[in-house]
Amino acid sequence: MRFAVISFPGSNCDRDLYYAIVDSLGEQADLISYTSTDLSKYDTILIPGGFSYGDYLRSGAIAKFAPAMKSVKAFAASGRPVIGICNGFQILTEAGLLPGTLQHNTNISFISEWEPLEVVNNKTPFTNQYQVNQKIKLPIAHGDGNYYCDDDTLKSLKQNHQIVFKYRNNPNGSVDDIAGIVNRKGNVLGMMPHPERATEKILGGQDGLTLFQSILNSIKVRSLS
Amino acid sequence: MLKQAEKSPEEIRDQKIYRQWGMSDNEYHTVVNKLLHRLPNFTEAGILAGMWSEHCSYKNTKPLLRHFWSKGSKVLEGPGEDAGAIDIGDNQAVIFKAESHNHPSYVEPFEGAATGVGGIIRDIFSMGARPVALLDSLRFGELTNQKNKFLMDRTVDGIAHYGNSIGIPTVGGEIGFDSTYDKNSLVNVMCVGIENQDDLKQDKASGIGNSIIYVGAKTGRDGINGATFASNEFSDSKESDRSAVQVGDPFMEKLLVDACLDIIHHHSDILVGIQDMGAAGLVSSSAEMASKAKSGVDLNLDLVPQREPHMTPYEILLSESQERMLLCVKKGHEKTIIDIFKRFGLDGVVIGHVNNNGQYHLTQHGETVCNIPVHTIVDDVPEYTHPIIEPDRIKHPAADFVPTVNDAGQMLAKLLSQPTIASKQSVYRQYDSRVQTNTVVAPGSDAGIIRIRHTDKALAMTTDCNGRYVYLNPEIGGEIATSEAARNIVAGGGLPIGATDCLNFGNPEDSESYYALAKSIDGITKACKLFDTPVISGNVSLHNETDRKPIYPTPLIGMVGLIKHDDEITTQDAKHAGDLVYIVGKTYDDYSGSEIQKLIQHQISGRIKHFDLQTENKNRKLVYQSIVNHLVQSVHDLSEGGLGVSIAETLFKHDFGFNGQLDLLGRQLFAETQSRYVITVAPKQKNAFEKLMGDCVKQIGQITKEPIVKIKLNDQDVNMNETDLKQKWERGLN
């Protein structure tokens, strides 16, 4: 299994994701440049957190024009898994791969905490190893994590079971306590919490590892069928 | 001052222009008569004034700083380079340094604090180390004053803005409040890095013809002569200091970190030296690089990337625009380096070459604008020593204060809500403390702890200083600051291995400030020798005063400890109901400079008694041994607010209670006697623990499931709800 972690200028969780895959999950990963356009040898694309292009203009707004993003769109269209975490989530909404947008937290400040979450949908390639309604804890670290979408979008997110993770004590003002969503097809996940920060016991928890194990499982199942 | 047209050498002499730049008449005459044997032109005089400022030259403090002990057997790099380095085994080194950014942060707290973070990070990665942690030590006036609340909020915003964006976790630090910092807040930032010892980089410019490459942000008119600014005190009537503050760009710095580390780690064969452009900007970095290699440099100022047109040589050289680095690269290999920068989206530019005549030679528009020996800029700086006179205030201290405490429970609640003691979680949650996925203990415990990836090791780190003790007795205060840092490291399970300092003092020409500086250095040195914690780097911030009123002398100690096995990592919170609670160390009636004295008397006075370095050292070693032997569940250092506060803080995380009996009076719950810890121990380890610790510990009670704090004292009983106490503690900052 081979994961690609795309490093944009200003990404700062790219190495963390790399280590989560290689050290904790025990699979292969490459850090690849935002200029790379050949993603053919990868099974999953990871778009890391950080402050791509300094988050100047708007979080994720410049990264969506990076050469790699065209290939990411094609990769997603082929039905293979793509995950955007934190700034990666912001990039995916800016790029139109996921609906909605992420605004400033309602309290204006940056928030860094272990946050209690609930797994709302475990029938995705990213959550199949969790129980439905399972309570988990993952770190959050963001200033712009307040998910917003209009009423119609929210309705369709609900109807299509696209809401995957919800906050149990909404820290940032997100609509419907949303912490993570998938696209309609279910192969593109965006989430504000950081699963890669919760893959080792010594760091305070391993609830994030289950997410990567789920991907592994879904790819194995798919290749068997 | 900044828009002034360039004066002629004669005008500089006759109108004494150099005085505006902080240069004295004597210094100017030394330059003219003994060093150059001619009148310096505008650029030359400006360069010398900047480089001879206290901020760059340490001319008032060097003779004292030489007293610091920096020789430990594990020291790879002592003071002098951008930051010091210590051997931590497995061919790895830890690099760390603390730096102040007090003046800019008072004038413009957001940018001042942000650029303080940026500056210290550059000192670390220019040594070849990947920055792995940040700590911030902040001091403000009382929060009852809205201005101080504003300063704190904006300072914290600035730190978060820079640190979060660049992706270095903030894992520790402390925040203290006292009216002494009312018009002179302190912002000290410490950065820690890790690297392979083979990659340790020195900042030298040697080899005739080698190229000087400039990379990073363009040079603008921001922060011009900030070094001189930092070497002056504030006055209420001076409003023109804003232009001396720089603006930071963490995104640019992130690119610089990645690109420079790539070059240091993969192209060390062609990289001769690398240095950050910090205080006094281009002139400081280039002249110091040349001085260390005993060579000179020719720089063409037309090639320096500039943000604004028509900048004068003086402005280009003394600008403190942020996120700029200077490299010395072997002749013929410039393109390799410039191409790497290009890959990271940065422009590297050759701006000059190393020469062999020892001259600092600058041209602009084809004309020589400066031609003076490097030696004169860097090494010919006069040094000043001042008499060390014990002030009457310290020679004849006021009578010792002994508080009357009729209701120790209520007093405990009150102390827990004092901003200095209260929870800082509302601040810490604004810092990304977990990026890089190495953080084991985030801010809020005695020490911040990160594991070293792919090893069994971890690093504990802390910053500490109680300026009140230093004010009352600088020597003992210095010993105590060092001791508290070491206690915090040990409480986290670390063996202290080295220290850095940030000496925040008033004007050194003021006899009391100078006395405090000299004596606190003596105290720190004594403690560091005994603890085997060499001082490997440091920073001096003088003139911390407004309208002639200095702050309490505040020599911040940053300390790093090595945790050899990550199962020795220890935290301050009690783990299980039923565990036994011990106190290490004896308690006396020590209230001079204490939080309770400040609370009751709104000022501090008296003598610092009962502190003994040998006892401190003995207690700390025993506590460390008890951790290594896996005999303890939690360890918490005692500091502001004394035993009462430490017991409460031990309970808060899991909402436990405490049931105990103390052979003390109510007031003694709040005595700040040093060398003490609160430790919890599982009942089955009682015998082994007591046997190891001997008579330096005493069992005082037990952790209970029921969240109630019950303490039997000789003159009264305490019976308080843990949840009520915790609420006071959590809301103290708001």
From TrEMBL, chain A:
- One Gene Ontology term of the molecular function aspect: phosphoribosylformylglycinamidine synthase activity
Compartments it resides in:
Cytoplasm
Transcription recorded as keyword:
no
Active-site residues, Swiss-Prot/TrEMBL: C86, H194, E196
Cellular component per GO, a single term:
cytoplasm
| Main subcellular localisation | cytoplasm
Instruction: Write out the entry's keywords from A to Z.
Output: ATP-binding, Cytoplasm, Glutamine amidotransferase, Hydrolase, Ligase, Nucleotide-binding, Purine biosynthesis
Q: What is its EC number?
A: 6.3.5.3, 3.5.1.2
Q: NCBIfam families under this entry?
A: FGAM_synth_I, PRK03619.1
PANTHER family in the cross-refs = PHOSPHORIBOSYLFORMYLGLYCINAMIDINE SYNTHASE SUBUNIT PURQ
What task does this protein carry out? Part of the phosphoribosylformylglycinamidine synthase complex involved in the purines biosynthetic pathway. Catalyzes the ATP-dependent conversion of formylglycinamide ribonucleotide (FGAR) and glutamine to yield formylglycinamidine ribonucleotide (FGAM) and glutamate. The FGAM synthase complex is composed of three subunits. PurQ produces an ammonia molecule by converting glutamine to glutamate. PurL transfers the ammonia molecule to FGAR to form FGAM in an ATP-dependent manner.
Q: What is this protein called?
A: Phosphoribosylformylglycinamidine synthase subunit PurQ
Source organism per UniProt: Philodulcilactobacillus myokoensis
From TrEMBL, chain B:
Annotated pathway:
Purine metabolism; IMP biosynthesis via de novo pathway; 5-amino-1-(5-phospho-D-ribosyl)imidazole from N(2)-formyl-N(1)-(5-phospho-D-ribosyl)glycinamide: step 1/2
Task: Identify the residues that the record assigns to the PurM-like N-terminal domain, covering every copy.
Answer: 80-194, 444-563
The residues that the entry says bind Mg(2+) 1 are: E99, N539
Q: Which reaction does it catalyse?
A: N(2)-formyl-N(1)-(5-phospho-beta-D-ribosyl)glycinamide + L-glutamine + ATP + H2O = 2-formamido-N(1)-(5-O-phospho-beta-D-ribosyl)acetamidine + L-glutamate + ADP + phosphate + H(+)
Q: Which residues form the active site?
A: H55, H101
Write out the residues that bind ATP.
Y58, K97, D501, G538
Q: Keywords in UniProt for this one? A: ATP-binding, Cytoplasm, Ligase, Magnesium, Metal-binding, Nucleotide-binding, Purine biosynthesis
**Chain ranges of the Phosphoribosylformylglycinamidine synthase linker domain:** 12-59
GO molecular function annotation:
ATP binding; magnesium ion binding; phosphoribosylformylglycinamidine synthase activity
Question: Please, one GO biological process term?
Answer: 'de novo' IMP biosynthetic process
Gene Ontology, cellular component aspect: cytoplasm
Where is the protein situated, by its record's location annotation? Answer: Cytoplasm
Cite the EC number. 6.3.5.3
Binding positions for Mg(2+) 2 per the UniProt entry: D123, D276
Gene3D superfamilies from the xrefs?
PurM-like C-terminal domain, PurM-like, N-terminal domain
Q: Where does substrate bind?
A: S100, H101, N102, H103, R122, Q246, E320, S321, Q322, S541
What InterPro entries does the entry give?
Answer: PRibForGlyAmidine_synth_PurL, PurL_linker, PurM-like_C_dom, PurM-like_C_sf, PurM-like_N, PurM-like_N_sf
Q: Which residues are in the PurM-like C-terminal domain?
A: 208-360, 577-712
Tell me which domain of life the UniProt entry assigns to the organism this sequence originates from: Bacteria
> What is the protein's quaternary organization?
Monomer. Part of the FGAM synthase complex composed of 1 PurL, 1 PurQ and 2 PurS subunits.
Q: Which PANTHER family match?
A: PHOSPHORIBOSYLFORMYLGLYCINAMIDINE SYNTHASE SUBUNIT PURL
Instruction: Supply the name of the protein.
Output: Phosphoribosylformylglycinamidine synthase subunit PurL
What gene does the UniProt entry assign to this protein?
purL
